[in-house]
Amino acid sequence: MPENKHNLAAGNVSFWNDPAKRSLVFQAILFLAVFAVGYIIYQNTQHNLESRGITTGFEFLDAEAGFGIIQSLIPYDETHSYGTTFIVGLLNTILVSALGVFFATILGFLIGVARLSHNWLIARVAAVYIEIFRNIPLLLQIFFWYFAVLRLLPGPRQSLEFADIAFLNVRGVYLPSPVLGEGFGWVLAALVLALIAIFFIKRWAKRRQNETGDQFPVFWASLGVLIGLPFIVFLLSGASLQWEIPELKGFNFRGGLTIIPELSALLIALTIYTAAFIAEIVRSGIESISKGQTEAARALGVSPGKTLQLVIIPQAMRVIIPPLTSQYLNLIKNSSLATAIGYPDLVSVFAGTTLNQTGQAIEVISMTMAVYLTLSLLVSLFMNWYNKRMALVER
Amino acid sequence: MIHNDNKLPDLPPPKNTTGIVGWAKENLFSSPLNSILTIIACYLLYISLVPAVEWAFVKADWLGDSREACTSGGACWVFITARLNQFIYGFYPEELYWRVNIVFAIFSVLVAALVIERTPYKGWIASFALIVFPVIAFFLLYGGGFDLKIVETHKWGGLMLTLVLAVVGIVAALPFGVLLALGRRSDMPVVKSFCVIFIEIWRGVPLITVLFMASVMLPLFIPEEVSFDKLLRALVGIVMFQSAYMAEVVRGGLQAIPKGQYEAAKALGLSYWKSMGLIILPQALKMMIPGIVNTFIALFKDTSLVLIIGLFDLLAIVQAGLSDPKWLGYSVEGYVFVAFVFWVFCFGMSQYSQALERKLDTGHKS
C-alpha cells in the first residue's frame, strides 16, 4: 500500500514496531513490577512485624548479649553487646577461611602435581583422592571428622602427647603459646625491615640480570634476610620470648594455645574438600601448556626445575587463577557450614543465637548476607588485580 | 664374495622392557626418586587399606535387627539394614511406599531414556519428563487427588527428599536461569542491571544464609493468612540460589555461539524471541548440558544443608539415627553408607558429564 511505504520512508513506524520505544515500555513495566513486588513485601512485613510486636532497627546491636562463645579472637564475655557478637563471629569466619585457603592451596597444588606424576601409583592415588572427596557433600565430611573421628579421641587424662609440649584429646589440640616479653617489638620491626630489604634485593637482582645477564640467588638471599635479621635482633634484645606449655589441671588442660575440635573438624574438611577441586584446576592449568614449551626450554639448556619455575608455572597460572578464585570464594561461603557443628562463625553466632534471642530476622540476615557479599567482592577484586598482573599482554 | 640378502629375524625386545617387569620399570621405578615414592605409597596403601577392608567386609556384621547382632568387632552394617526404609523413604507411611516406588520407577525410566543415545522421540520424552511427570509425581507423593491420602511434607525424608529437592531445584531453576542470562546480555539497561544484581547477590552468599532467609524471613514477606509449607520455603530458597548459578552456565553457552549466528538470525528478519528460541538457545543449550550436569551435582550435594533448617534429608536421617540411644556409637557406619550413596550418584553424573563433553567437543579446542 502506498501510504505504508510512505510512512516507512519517513521513519514513521507505528509505536509497537519501533524497537527503541518498545524496549523503553518493556523496561518501564519491569521497573514498575519490581517496585510493586517490593512495595507489597514491605507492606506485608510491616504488618507482620507489628502484629508480632517486633521492633525494627539496629538498636539491638547495643543490647547485652548474655550468652557465651567458645572461641573468640577478641575479649568477649556474656556482658558484651550483640554488636560484639557480630565482630566475634566475623573474625572467626575470617580465621577459618584464611587458614582453609592457605592449607587447601598447598594440598591442592601437591595433589594436582601428583596427579600428573610419571609414577603410575602416585598418579592413581591422587586421582582416587580427587574422585572420592569431591563427590561427597562437604557437610557430611564435616560431620564425619567431628562426630566420627574427633569425638573418638581419648579424654584429657589419656591425651596423646607429642614431646610433652603438645597434646591431643577429645577437647581439642593443646599447643604451647608464645609469651612475648619486653623488647619483642624490635623483632617485629626487624621483620618489617627484612621484608622491605627483600623487595629492594629483588629489584636490584632483576636490574642486574637485565644489564649483565648474571643471575643472583634471590630466593636464598631473601630467605636468609627474612630469618637472619629478626633472629639477630631477637638475640640482641635479650631473647625475651618464652613458651607457655599447657598443663593438665583437674579435668582439663590450662594455659597454652587451644584449638577447639570444632575448628579442627571444619578446617580439615574444608581443606580436603576444596583441595580436590584445586587439584583438578592445577592439573588442567599445567596440561594446557603445550609440550613444545618444555621441549624448547630444555633445548635451550634450562634445567628441569627452572623450566617448571620460569616457563610452565607462570603460563599455567594464567589458566589457574580465575577458577582458583571461585574455589576460594566457595571455601569462604562453605565455612558457614560451621553452624552445623557449633563452631562459632558468623552464621552460627549471629544468624543463629543472636537471631533467636532478638527475633530481628531482617536486620540479622541482611547483615550476614552483606558480610559474605563484601568478602566475596574483596577476594575477587584482589584476585582480578593479581590476574591482570599475570595475564598475557597481547599486541 | 658371498652376499647374504636374507633378512635376519627380528630379535625379541629386551626382556626388561616388556611385560609386567618392563611396565613397572617404566611407570614405577624410572628413577631413584620414583622408586622411593613408589615404596612409600605402597606402604601407606598397605597400612590404610588392609584394616579398612577388614573393618568394612571381613569382620563386618550384616544381619540382625538390633545392636546385639554386632559382635565381630568390624563394621556394624546392621545399623543401616535395620533402618534402610528410613534412609529411602524418611517417615513416609509404610503402607504407602508403593506410591514413592512408582515415582522412582518412572523417574529412572525417563532418565535412562534421556541418557541413552539412541532412544527415539527424545523431544517428546523430554517434554513428558518436564511437564507431565511433575504433575504425576506431585499427586503420587503428596496425594490429594484421585482418592489418594494426603501425606504431609514433614513426613518426607531420606533419599526421596534429597531427590525431590535436587530435581525440583534444577528443573525450576532452568527457565529462570535462561531468562536471567538473556537479561544479563540484554541491551536494555534497566533489565540488565536488574539481572546482574540478582545474579551477583545470590552467587555471593552461602546457600545456608539463603535457606535461613527462606525459613525466617519469607514468612514475614507474605500475608499473615497464607501458611507456607517448610519444604516449599526451602525450595523457594534453593531455586533462587540455583537460578543464579544456572544463569551463569547459560551465559557461558550464549557467549560460545559465534557472532555470525546472531547476525544471520537478524539478517533473516527474525524477531528477538524467534532468533533466540529457534537459533541461539537450541545450540547454546546443547553446549550447556555438561555445565548443567555439573551444577546439578553441586546442587545434589548441597541439598544436605536442609538439615540445618530441620528437614530430614538422607544425611539428617543418619544424624537422627545417631541420637537414638539404641544405636549410640555407630556414626562411622552411618556416614560411610550415606557418603557411598552420595558418591555413587555424583560420580556417575560426573562421568556422564565428562563423556558428554568429549562427545560434544567440536574440536575447536586444541
From TrEMBL, chain A:
Keyword Transmembrane helix: yes
All copies of domain ABC transmembrane type-1, residue ranges: 90-383
Recorded superkingdom: Bacteria
Compartmental location: Cell inner membrane; Cell membrane
PROSITE patterns per the UniProt record, alphabetical: ABC_TM1
Keywords associated with the record: Amino-acid transport, Cell membrane, Membrane, Transmembrane, Transmembrane helix, Transport
UniProt cross-references to InterPro entries, sorted A to Z: AA_ABC_transptr_permease_3TM, ArtM/GltK/GlnP/TcyL/YhdX-like, MetI-like, MetI-like_sf
Segments crossing the lipid bilayer: 24-42, 86-114, 126-148, 184-205, 217-243, 263-282, 364-386
Membrane topology reported for the UniProt record: Multi-pass membrane protein
Classification via Pfam families: BPD_transp_1 (PF00528)
Endoplasmic reticulum keyword on record: no
Family: Belongs to the binding-protein-dependent transport system permease family. HisMQ subfamily.
Name of the protein this chain belongs to: Amino acid ABC transporter permease
UniProtKB/TrEMBL annotation, chain B:
Assigned keywords, A-Z: Amino-acid transport, Cell membrane, Membrane, Transmembrane, Transmembrane helix, Transport
Location of the ABC transmembrane type-1 domain: 159-348
Gene3D superfamilies from the UniProt entry: MetI-like (1.10.3720.10)
Localization of this protein: Cell inner membrane; Cell membrane
Family: Belongs to the binding-protein-dependent transport system permease family. HisMQ subfamily.
Protein name: Amino acid ABC transporter permease
Residues spanning the membrane: 36-57, 69-92, 98-116, 123-144, 156-182, 194-222, 275-299, 305-322, 334-352
Major site of localization recorded for this protein: membrane
One Pfam short name: BPD_transp_1
Organism: Spartinivicinus poritis
Membrane topology value: Multi-pass membrane protein
PANTHER family in the cross-refs: INNER MEMBRANE AMINO-ACID ABC TRANSPORTER PERMEASE PROTEIN YHDY, MEMBRANE COMPONENT OF AMINO ACID ABC TRANSPORTER
Chain coiled-coil ranges: none
Xref: SUPFAM superfamilies: MetI-like
